[in-house]
Amino acid sequence: MLNVVTSAFFVLIAVLEYLLPHREDWRASDGQVLHDLGHSWFGTGLGGLAGNLTIGFLAPLLAAALWGGQAWWPSDLPFVLQLGIVYLVADFGRYWQHRIHHLVPFLWRFHALHHSVERMSVFKTSRSHFVERYLQQVFMFGLLILLGCPLEMLVWYIIPNSVIGLLDHSNLDVQLGPLERVIMGPKGHRLHHSAAPEDMDTNFGSAIVLWDVVFRTFRDPTRVPQPEVVGIRDDPIPSDFLRQYFSPFLWARLTAPKPALEAAPEE
């Protein structure tokens, strides 16, 4: 069901962002679409699957060791309150997973692939490395599964969050207005993809902006202009797919200072 819904929204947004672009110059191809799809399959797809399998295997074992397999999930609460807990916990995990990928140089090597874009497009949504996506699943859903959260409850977070992610990375001219101060909308996430450091290290949330507000990393997109340039300054990520995928392990070579050209001798 999740794949069907997200695929349908992907196609819809891809069409709409071409018809109603946020920026006309972002409609031109950057030559990375096939690479983006490859990273969606081999990075986000496989990494997410591996993360989910790890949670599914380890969480019951850990729960049994910690509290004898007893479920601590407050299933007696009204649905709306349970859903609120899911959003708070999942987005808290996603916030810190995302933020430490910016703070820890070794983890930034894996996250840089996602930021290595010169334009925003729905195709960039799942341009992620296997390692990053694996950790994302563990951080977002590990504690919830450990507490015994029903899988059907998680669906009510996963599907809306997936749609928000597609919108946030798209070139679609969508205006959410004051809602950008509640959910992580396209304008807020574009700031996060800005090449300017004062923007890039903000707005780490996934579905909601609460934790960015709490930890003072929220940059209000209704009060600051949208970025002129997105991506990474002095981007070290190669242009070919295989070297992109293995770039975290080639980082020293990719980021080594380029030798200066020797001046030609005067005649």
The major sheet is characterized as: none
Number of strands: 0
* Rg calculated over all Cα atoms: 20 Å
Instruction: Work out the helix count.
Output: 11
- What is the residue-mean pLDDT, rounded to a whole number? 93
Number of domains as seen in the coordinates = 1
User: Looking at the structure, what is the overall shape?
Assistant: globular
Q: SSE order, as H and E?
A: HHHHHHHHHHH
Question: How would you explain this protein's 3D organization?
Answer:
This protein has 267 residues and is an all-alpha fold. The model has no long low-confidence stretch (mean pLDDT 93).
Task: Give the SSE layout.
Blueprint: H1 2-19, H2 33-67, H3 79-103, H4 105-115, H5 130-146, H6 151-169, H7 186-192, H8 197-200, H9 210-214, H10 241-245, H11 251-255
At a glance:
57% of the residues lie in helices and 0% in strands. The protein is mostly helical and 267 residues long. It has one domain.
Key attributes of the depicted protein:
267 residues, mainly alpha, 0% strand, globular
